[in-house]
Design a protein that fits this description.
Order of helices and strands: HEEHEHEEEEE
Number of helices: 3
Largest sheet: 4 strands, antiparallel
Oligomer: single chain
Radius of gyration: 15 Å
Strand content: 25-35%
Shape: globular
Structural class: alpha+beta
Length: 150
């Protein structure tokens, strides 16, 4: 488990470490990689699910699918993932975060938001730090987050 913190947030490590051991001992040890950023904790889940199943999993075990509200968070979420393409918490209705909030930050691949076939309503993040839309029923690994909005 890898954590990133600055010196002012070192006291925040204790709950993260306690939660890691609690989840590991309870059999919920799906955390392959975790990044601590002070206000948000990004957790890579190495279990492929549809977007809605991933959302339910994150809401039950963490807070929600990853919400990425600026470039710094985009980098932190990218650093937490151990796979090429992962679900993030963005869906088309219009593009809204999983919790229903809107964000002006976008990081689309030039062809990433094309809704090819009219059925790509959920967002992924690639290894190039860019987002794409995809059919929500495709099973992918994903990133959850804990912590508060900035």
């Amino acid at each position: 488990m890898e954590m990133v913190s600055n010196r002012t947030n070192q006291h925040n490590w204790i709950p993260v470490v306690e939660q890691f051991w609690s989840r590991l001992l309870s059999g919920k040890g799906n955390m392959c990689n975790t990044r601590w950023r002070g206000t948000k904790n990004y957790v890579f889940i190495n279990q492929a699910m549809s977007w809605s199943s991933a959302q339910q999993y994150c809401r039950k075990n963490y807070k929600d699918l990853a919400m990425i509200e600026n470039q710094e968070e985009n980098t932190e979420a990218q650093n937490a993932k151990l796979s090429n393409k992962v679900w993030i918490g963005l869906y088309r209705d219009p593009w809204t975060w999983s919790d229903g909030s809107r964000s002006s930050f976008r990081n689309w691949d030039p062809f990433g938001s094309d809704n090819n076939g009219g059925s790509q309503h959920c967002a992924t993040e690639s290894s190039e730090h860019v987002w794409g839309d995809e059919n929500c029923s495709v099973k992918r690994v994903f990133i959850c987050h804990q912590g508060e909005h900035l």
